[in-house]
């Protein structure tokens, strides 16, 4: 690589970092000036989420300690592990916040998952079809994480106020707009994880997509939508 190319890549990287910092600072300032927002309750407790989703059966649940709950500021959550009849397992986490940024907020998996030897190999947007009849598609984010020769595939999205959002940055933009217009700051973070034995990424992706197609419509019965009543 030439010196010119290296300088250009460095400048492009700094440009992207600058844009991100501007977005974060602008979001922070706008949110501090938003007044009169209301907490929005969950429609029903996530603990009632179906224990059976198609071929997937709940195998075990995980409960975080009070210190973790207080740190996250989450108002309701589930951390379930499902298994199908072939022995494949998927970890399913949903965290709901009545008011993002006041009592608690999201922790991006891009920052939380790396550690303990695990690192992010790739990140990309994917399409999921939660309504097969209408053939509508929504965006989610996929991460492939690796620890030596072990791989896991992660899907995540934000299911907030009637939207499914893949990008952390767009989530922040919508949070500001909805705080201003709807007077709401509630939101939910959804994450799926599956192991990829022998590096079989395609199989893990297929399992996660199939599970996501079942879970997304069900979550509408729990997470507040566009017209949900505030408290």
Explain what you see.
The protein is α+β, with helices and mostly antiparallel strands. It has one domain. Helix content is 32%, strand content 32%. Strands 1, 2, 3, 4, 5, 6, 7, 8 and 9 form a 9-stranded antiparallel beta sheet that branches. A hairpin with a 4-residue loop joins strand 5 and strand 6. Helix 1 packs parallel to helix 4. It is globular, with a radius of gyration of 19 Å. The N terminus is likely disordered.
Q: What's this entry about, in short?
A:
It is built from 5 helices and 9 strands; from the N terminus they run αββαββαββββαβα. With 231 residues, it is an alpha+beta fold. The longest helix has 30 residues, at 3-32.
Integer tally of domains = 1
Q: What's the count of strands?
A: 9
Envelope shape: globular
Which consecutive residue ranges, at least 5 long each, have pLDDT under 50?
Answer: 1-9
Distance between the termini: 58 Å
Average pLDDT works out at 82
Q: Give me the strand/helix succession.
A: HEEHEEHEEEEHEH
**Approximately what portion of the residues adopt beta-strand conformation?**
25-35%
Q: Roughly how much helix do the residues carry, as a percent range?
A: 25-40%
Tell me the structural class. alpha+beta
Number of helices: 5
Outline the biggest β-sheet.
9 strands, antiparallel
Topology:
Blueprint: H1 3-32, E1 52-53, E2 56-61, H2 66-72, E3 76-83, E4 89-97, H3 109-112, E5 119-131, E6 136-147, E7 150-160, E8 163-165, H4 168-181, E9 187-195, H5 201-219
Antiparallel strand pairs: 1-2, 2-3, 3-4, 4-9, 5-6, 6-7, 7-8, 7-9
């Amino acid at each position: 690589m030439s010196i010119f190319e290296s300088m250009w890549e460095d400048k492009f990287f700094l440009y992207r970092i600058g844009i991100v910092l501007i977005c974060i600072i602008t979001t922070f300032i706008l949110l501090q000036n938003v007044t009169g927002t209301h907490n929005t309750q969950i429609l029903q407790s996530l603990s009632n989420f179906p224990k059976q989703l198609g071929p997937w059966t709940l195998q075990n649940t995980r409960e975080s300690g009070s210190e973790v709950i207080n740190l996250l500021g989450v108002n309701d959550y589930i951390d379930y592990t499902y298994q199908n009849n072939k022995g494949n397992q998927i970890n399913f986490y949903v965290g709901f916040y009545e008011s993002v940024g006041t009592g608690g907020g999201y922790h991006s998996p891009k920052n939380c998952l790396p550690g303990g030897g695990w690192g992010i190999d790739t990140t990309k947007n994917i399409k999921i079809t939660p309504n097969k009849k209408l053939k509508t598609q929504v965006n989610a984010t996929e991460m492939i994480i690796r620890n030596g020769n072990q791989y896991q595939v992660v899907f995540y999205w934000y299911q907030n106020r009637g939207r499914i959002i893949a990008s952390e940055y767009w989530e922040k933009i919508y949070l500001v707009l909805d705080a201003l217009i709807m007077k709401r700051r509630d939101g939910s973070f959804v994450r799926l994880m599956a192991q990829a034995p022998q590096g079989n990424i395609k199989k893990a992706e297929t399992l996660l997509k199939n599970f996501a197609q079942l879970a997304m419509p069900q979550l509408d019965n729990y997470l507040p939508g566009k017209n949900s009543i505030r408290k």
